[in-house]
Amino acid sequence: MTHSLPRRTFVGATLASLSFLPLSSYAAQLSSSLANSLSKAERDAMTPPQVLAELKKGNERFRSGKMASRDYLAEKRASAAGQYPAAVILGCLDSRVPAEIVFDTGIGDTFIGRVAGNVVNDDMLGSMEFACAAAGAKLVLVLGHTACGAVKGAIDDVVLGNLTGLLARIKPAIAATKFDGEKSSKNAAFVDAVARTNVSLVIADIRRRSPILEELEHKGSIKIAGAMYTLTNGTVDFFD
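The structure corresponding to this sequence follows.
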């Protein structure tokens, strides 16, 4: 081989066989056994749909047990001087839904915000605006999940200190969910339906409350999408 491309954080094990191709012939992947950090040029060359596609591929690797081999210490060293994440993910506090693992991403790949019920407030909106408008992330993903305790608490009108106000942000999803059957926290199907509605309402809330993000999406600079993670099988179902 007479030449090769620069090593990339998000390029998979097939890089060696593809190194003779021009950079534009394949998309950077959000996983790698290599130890470098994603560069600004590489991240900026990706489109929002490409970033979303790579998260889908990462989830497939996760649930099939074929996750990338990583050197986290090397990734830490490579990203210490600067970060160029491709996405910002708003997920739930739930300990069973670690976004970095679910999407098989490494250090420096994604911004992660977590709060019970994956609700959005002014601080989270400001963080998303920083991630996209200032730092250059291409995707905002709201990630809900099945059997969400916060959704159950909202359905049951739980009152507990500051949690009460947080659950109030989820309650609009209860009324907005069309469901035939028992509408209680004991009905897993209803809980999951409300959780999915909540993701959709959070997406609408982001667009409504952040003109900055709405304009970036209108220009095609970013994509705002939603997803539901299934605890039992590790699958992420993506939707707009």
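Confidence is low (pLDDT under 50) at residues 1-28.
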